[in-house]
Automatic annotation (TrEMBL):
Keyword Isomerase: no
PTM sites of type 4-aspartylphosphate: 53
Source species taxonomy: Bacteria, Pseudomonadati, Verrucomicrobiota, Opitutia, Puniceicoccales
Annotated protein name in UniProt: Response regulator
Keywords: Phosphoprotein
Domain Response regulatory, chain residue ranges per copy: 4-120, 140-256
Classification via Pfam families: Response_reg
Keyword Transcription regulation among record annotations: no
Source domain of life: Bacteria
Length: 373
């Protein structure tokens, strides 16, 4: 359900500013020119929050607030008062009646959004029905680090992807960047001076526009105290230097909710190919498993009845991968799907060392595998 905001102000300019401020959020704006209209509109739409001007004709903000708080149906609606500089004392007096906050006119749009986001849960427009991005879609990653070499290293590390890596050196630059362009993910160096990383974390989390952006801390593995402070502040993911880019890519993909199935699954010419990467650690195996059922169903629905498990690029066979392949082959048999395995010399030799895989037959190429089924 969309958030409902009621703005009660005799100034058309202020009402326009309010509408403009929340244009990028999933909410609807209702307007009233005075307290009488405001009460009527509040009763009609039952808003989630009211932005109430103090000085208005017909019925001012103080009288409307008093009547609002005496109405059993409306008294629970949070109110933020709008006042001129000279009216601050008046606001403090009526705070006892029940206001959540106040804003001094003139105000900036980001201040209004920030104040409202502290009271109600603002979400970006369209977030209720998001279109899931794929792993090969462009995303924007903001790196906050005062060492240019680290920023360049991350740019180079993701050079094989369509991801855009933006680098800034300070908290102020990061805030400015986020106001102009909302990143999909932010990586913050925990070694920034004067606990700037934690300060930036709190600023980002307290802002309605950025509060849901995934945040990663970046730290040397041995900086245990630095990492502990960051985790205590709220960082849920810490990336260690030197950076394992394969691991970081996987973590960003999960945090941003990217559909990573394209890394492993390919359909065409009557076949589905499951391409296993060089490092098939537990995290990768788990990721492949996550997509396996849905992609197999997709293949069957598309009329595909042949599957190739391609392990030619795998560096080493392990029990996690063996279990994945055993489960996959059983699924194929249960669905009457034909399948074949491909592997390199290392994988073929290592498979003979495990009881579960010693009898597996491998093809040496995709072409051979296709011909075999």
């Amino acid at each position: 359900m969309r958030l409902k905001i009621l703005t009660v102000d005799d100034s058309k300019t202020v009402r326009i500013i309010v509408k403009k401020s929340f244009k990028g959020f999933d909410c609807e704006i209702h307007e009233a020119q005075n307290g009488v209209e405001g009460l009527a509109m509040a009763a009609k739409v039952n808003p989630d929050i009211i932005l109430l001007d103090i000085t208005m004709p017909v019925m001012d903000g103080v009288e409307m607030l008093t009547k609002l708080k005496s109405d059993p149906q409306l008294k629970g609606i949070p109110v933020i008062m709008l006042t001129a500089e000279a009216g601050r004392e008046n606001v403090m007096k009526i705070a006892k009646i029940g206001v959540r906050d106040y804003i001094v006119k003139p105000f900036k749009e980001d201040v209004l959004v920030d104040k409202v986001s502290r009271v109600v849960d603002l979400r970006p427009a369209g977030e209720a029905e998001p279109v899931q991005k794929k792993i090969d879609d462009p995303i924007d990653i903001l790196v906050v680090d005062d060492k240019p070499a680290i920023i360049q290293q991350i740019k180079d590390g993701f050079g094989h992807t369509p991801w855009n890596v933006h680098g800034v050196a300070s908290t102020g630059e990061a805030i400015d960047f986020c106001q102009k362009k909302l990143p999909d993910c932010i990586i913050i160096s925990l070694s920034l001076s004067e606990d700037a990383a934690i300060t930036l974390f709190r600023i980002i989390r307290s802002n309605a526009k950025t509060k849901y952006v995934p945040l990663f801390g970046l730290s040397v593995k041995t900086a245990v105290e630095e990492q502990a402070r960051a985790q205590q502040a709220g960082f849920s993911t810490i990336i260690h230097k030197p950076i394992d880019f394969e691991d970081l890519e996987t973590k960003i993909g999960k945090a941003v909710n990217l559909d990573a199935s394209g890394k492993y699954f390919d359909m065409g010419e009557g076949f589905m190919t499951v391409k296993l990467p060089k490092s098939c650690n537990a995290a990768v195996v788990n990721e492949v498993s996550t997509y396996l059922k849905s992609k197999t169903s997709e293949a069957v629905n598309a009329g595909i009845s042949k599957i190739i498990f391609d392990a030619q690029g795998v560096a080493s066979l392990n029990m996690d991968l063996i279990k994945l392949l055993l489960h996959s082959m059983k699924t194929c048999r249960d669905l009457s799907l034909k399948y074949a395995l491909t592997g390199n010399d290392v994988v073929i030799e290592e498979s003979k060392k495990f009881e579960e895989s010693k009898d597996w037959k491998f093809c040496d190429s995709l072409e051979t595998a296709k011909a075999s089924i």
